[in-house]
Q: What sequence folds into this?
C-alpha cells in the first residue's frame, strides 16, 4: 500500500488487462474511477459524458426563452423548475466526467469554442408556447428512454448520475404532455398551434437517438463495454411505440404518413428519417447553432464578475483567518 | 490546490476546489454520497450542494468535504486489504444450525 499505483492513463492496454476488464463488464460489475480501464473506454466515456452534460446546459436555452411569456403562473413555475433541473443535470454529469481525470475547464472551453458537440435537438428554435409542451413531451420523453438504459451503464459515476436524473426527468415529460393535452383540447387556434409544434419537433426528436445502427461507428464498442445496452434503432423504436398512443389520446397527429402498426413485430413502423438534416445540424449548420453558442458565451462572460467576487471573498477570508 | 487568484489576467478561470457532497434523507438513514460541487468556501459548497442535490426535500442534513481530505482504499490494494474478512463465514447467521421448527427470533 506504500507504493503509489501508476496512473491508469499511463498504463498501456495490455491484452491480459483488457481481457480481465471485459470479464468484469460481462459479470455486470461496476467500473469505478480508480479502476484500470482501457484508454479507449476512458476516451469514449469522456466524450459521451461531456456531450451529455453540454446538452443539458445548452438545453436550458430554448426553454428559458419562454419563461417570461408562460401563459400562467402554474406554467411559469413549472418551466422555471424544469430549467433549473436541467442545470442540475448538467452539473451531475460534469462531476461524473471529472472522475475520469479530465479538467472541467477544458470541457467548458471546448463548448464555448464550438468544438464540443451537444445534442442537436437543442439547435432548433422554440417558436411558440406549444413548442415548450412539445419539448417536454418528445425531447424529455426521448431522453427518458435513453437515460433509463444508461442508468445501467458499466461506469459507476455515469450510471449513478443517470439514476438521479431519471427520477427528476419524469416531471419534465408530464408537464410537457399536460401542456399539449390542454392546448389540444382548447380553441381551434390552440389546437393548430399544438399540431404545428408536433409537426416541427417529431422528426428531430427521432434523430435524438443518433444515426441508424448501420451508420453508428461508436456503438459496437460501447455495447461491448456495457456503456450502451441497447442500440440506437432499438431505443428509437421504443420511443415511437410509447408515443403513438400518447398522441392518439390527445388527438394530435404525428406527421408521418407511413406510420402503421406491424402485428408481426408488435412495433409501430415509421417512415424514413432525413439523415442529411441530422448531419447538417450535428456539424453546426442547424437553425440555432450559432445563436446557442453566442448565448453560452455571453452568459459565461456576464458571469465573470460573480466568479471573481466569490474567489476574492474566499481569499480575503483566508487572509483574515491566517492573520488571526 | 486552493487557488485564490481568479486568473482573469490569463483569461482563464479556475474551476475552484472540489467538494464531495453527502446527503442524509429524512427518517434517520445515514448520509449517502450524492456527488460533488466546486466552491470557493465551505459555506458556498453547502449552498451549492443544496441547490444542486436537494431541490426536492431529499436531505435533512448535508455534509460537504474537500475531496482532497478523503482517504480511500485503492482497487489495487483491494485483495490484501479486505482479505482477512472474506473467508470468515462464521460471521454470518447462516453458518449456524438450529433445530428445525425452532423460532430463533
A:
Amino acid at each position: 500500500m506504500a507504493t503509489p499505483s501508476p496512473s491508469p492513463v499511463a498504463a498501456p492496454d495490455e491484452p491480459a488487462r483488457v481481457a480481465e476488464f471485459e470479464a468484469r463488464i460481462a459479470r455486470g460489475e461496476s467500473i469505478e474511477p480508480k479502476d484500470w480501464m482501457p484508454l479507449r473506454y476512458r476516451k469514449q466515456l469522456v466524450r459521451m459524458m461531456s456531450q451529455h452534460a453540454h446538452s443539458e446546459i445548452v438545453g436550458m436555452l430554448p426553454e428559458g426563452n419562454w419563461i417570461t411569456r408562460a401563459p400562467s403562473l402554474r406554467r411559469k413555475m413549472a418551466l422555471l423548475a424544469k430549467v433549473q433541473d436541467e442545470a442540475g443535470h448538467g452539473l451531475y454529469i460534469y462531476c461524473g466526467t471529472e472522475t475520469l481525470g479530465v479538467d472541467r475547464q477544458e470541457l467548458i472551453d471546448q463548448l464555448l469554442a464550438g468544438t464540443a458537440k451537444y445534442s442537436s435537438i437543442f439547435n432548433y428554435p422554440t417558436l411558440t408556447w406549444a413548442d415548450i409542451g412539445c419539448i417536454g413531451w418528445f425531447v424529455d420523453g426521448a431522453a427518458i428512454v435513453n437515460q433509463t438504459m444508461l442508468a445501467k451503464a458499466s461506469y459507476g459515476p455515469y450510471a449513478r448520475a443517470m439514476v438521479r436524473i431519471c427520477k427528476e426527468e419524469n416531471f419534465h415529460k408530464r408537464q410537457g404532455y399536460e401542456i399539449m393535452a390542454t392546448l389540444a383540447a382548447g380553441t381551434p387556434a390552440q389546437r393548430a398551434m399544438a399540431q404545428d409544434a408536433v409537426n416541427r419537433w417529431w422528426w428531430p426528436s427521432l434523430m435524438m437517438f443518433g444515426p441508424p445502427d448501420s451508420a453508428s461507428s461508436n456503438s459496437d464498442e460501447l455495447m461491448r463495454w456495457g456503456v450502451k445496452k441497447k442500440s440506437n434503432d432499438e431505443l428509437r423504436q421504443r420511443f415511437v411505440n410509447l408515443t403513438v398512443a400518447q398522441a392518439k389520446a390527445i388527438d394530435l397527429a404525428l406527421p408521418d404518413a407511413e406510420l402503421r402498426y406491424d402485428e408481426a413485430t408488435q412495433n409501430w413502423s415509421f417512415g424514413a428519417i432525413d439523415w442529411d438534416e441530422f448531419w447538417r445540424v450535428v456539424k453546426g449548420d442547424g437553425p440555432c447553432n450559432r445563436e446557442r453558442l453566442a448565448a453560452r458565451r455571453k452568459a459565461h462572460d456576464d458571469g465573470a464578475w460573480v466568479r471573481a467576487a466569490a474567489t476574492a471573498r474566499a481569499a480575503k477570508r483566508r487572509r483574515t483567518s491566517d492573520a488571526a | 490546490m486552493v487557488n485564490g487568484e481568479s486568473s482573469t489576467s490569463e483569461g482563464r478561470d479556475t474551476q475552484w476546489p472540489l467538494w464531495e457532497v453527502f446527503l442524509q434523507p429524512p427518517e434517520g438513514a445515514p448520509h449517502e454520497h450524492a456527488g460533488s460541487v466546486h466552491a470557493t468556501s465551505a459555506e458556498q459548497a453547502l449552498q451549492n450542494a443544496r441547490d444542486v442535490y436537494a431541490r426536492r426535500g431529499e436531505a435533512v442534513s448535508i455534509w460537504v468535504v474537500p475531496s482532497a481530505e478523503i482517504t480511500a482504499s485503492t482497487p489495487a490494494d483491494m485483495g490484501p486489504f479486505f482479505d482477512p474478512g472474506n473467508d470468515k463465514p462464521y460471521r454470518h447467521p447462516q453458518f449456524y444450525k438450529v433445530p428445525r421448527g425452532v423460532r430463533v427470533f
Remarks:
- The two ends of chain B are 54 Å apart (CA to CA).
- Residues 48 and 56 of chain B are 14 Å apart (CA to CA).
- DSSP finds two helices and three strands in chain B.
- Confidence is low (pLDDT under 50) at residues 1-11 of chain B.
